[in-house]
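Regression test case RT-17, inverse folding.

Input:
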């Protein structure tokens, strides 16, 4: 029986994917260069059983985002794995319609992202970005003009308390004695408490938190949820941090809340367009920390997520159902298609 072929476009997040995949004799990994005509890329994708798909929407050409149109062109595809916890480049419903299993690497980069979020909280409360900007510009001012605040004992509100949010809650609670509030409609109060927070609704979280940090996926429900009205409900002088996804927060509304002085600062790792254009107003603000979706881009996190992905494809290659399935409804059809896998490929 032929091996289960997995294709990736251009490059991998970390060498650990290849090293882990090499341990599965039933698995074959194929690199598909992007520096060729689109039809060449599509032809190569038609020859694979699994697609290891970039998760960053602005790095992957739109033609190769996993949509109904792409899946129609790839009738033999059995499985898609995103390169991270997010899967912005993949339509789960389209995968389900096509009988294609979708998995992600949820939790694989939780430590890197959580540390990034807490680092932003500390830097913003201590006003490090403002002090650095003033010193570099030669703007003389008293130290008292840059007086900061400490994280210890403050109220931290987490919108979403999954893998990353749980680790953030642990850090700020144990290291800094913070009270942690969490809004997560998919978890009950007992589960939230077990993860180190008190379950509240979003309005209470915004009104009571000194720091609001986003840790939820982009979805139709979360798109635009942090609006001008949301920022207005936050405490005067509060800090806003997001390592989640662009489009969840309204960037112009956030810029206005910062410019008015209502919010004291913001830490932004994710953007509607990544990277944002140089003219973006938030880039000109001294009280904003700017990073380019790099919270989970650490040696450790990249090695971990690629190892998890390779193991998921190895499960599929050896006939097992992998963990971290996004579209669970497709499992019966996927299993039927996987059972038909052979020298002639999968049946649609």
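Golden output:
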């Amino acid at each position: 029986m032929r091996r289960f072929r997995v294709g990736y476009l251009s490059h991998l997040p970390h060498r650990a994917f290849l090293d882990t995949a090499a341990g599965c004799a039933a698995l074959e990994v194929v690199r598909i260069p992007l520096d060729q005509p689109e039809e060449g890329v599509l032809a190569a994708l038609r020859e694979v059983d699994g697609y290891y798909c970039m998760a960053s929407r602005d790095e992957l050409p739109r033609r190769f985002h996993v949509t109904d149109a792409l899946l129609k062109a790839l009738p033999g595809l059995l499985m898609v794995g995103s390169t991270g916890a997010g899967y912005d480049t993949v339509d789960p419903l389209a995968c389900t319609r096509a009988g294609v299993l979708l998995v992600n690497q949820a939790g694989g980069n939780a430590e890197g992202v959580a540390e990034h979020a807490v680092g932003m909280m500390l830097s913003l409360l201590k006003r490090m970005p403002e002090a650095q900007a003033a010193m570099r510009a030669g703007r003389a001012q008293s130290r008292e003009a840059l007086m900061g605040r400490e994280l210890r004992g403050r109220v931290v509100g987490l919108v979403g308390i999954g893998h990353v949010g749980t680790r953030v809650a642990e850090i700020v609670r144990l290291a800094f004695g913070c009270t942690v509030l969490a809004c997560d409609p998919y978890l009950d109060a007992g589960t939230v408490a077990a993860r180190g927070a008190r379950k509240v609704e979003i309005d209470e979280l915004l009104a009571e938190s000194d720091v609001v940090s986003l840790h939820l996926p982009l979805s139709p429900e979360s798109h635009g949820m942090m609006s001008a009205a949301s920022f207005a409900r936050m405490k005067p002088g509060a800090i806003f941090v997001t390592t989640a996804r662009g489009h969840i927060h309204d960037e112009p509304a956030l810029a206005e809340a910062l410019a008015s002085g209502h919010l004291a600062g913001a830490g932004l790792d994710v953007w509607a367009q990544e990277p944002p254009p140089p003219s973006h107003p938030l880039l000109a603000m001294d009280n904003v920390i700017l990073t380019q979706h790099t919270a989970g881009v650490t040696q450790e996190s990249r090695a971990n997520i690629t190892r998890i992905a390779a193991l998921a494809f190895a499960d599929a290659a050896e006939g097992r159902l992998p963990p971290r399935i996004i579209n669970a409804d497709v499992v019966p059809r996927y299993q039927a298609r996987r059972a038909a896998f052979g020298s002639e490929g999968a049946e649609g």
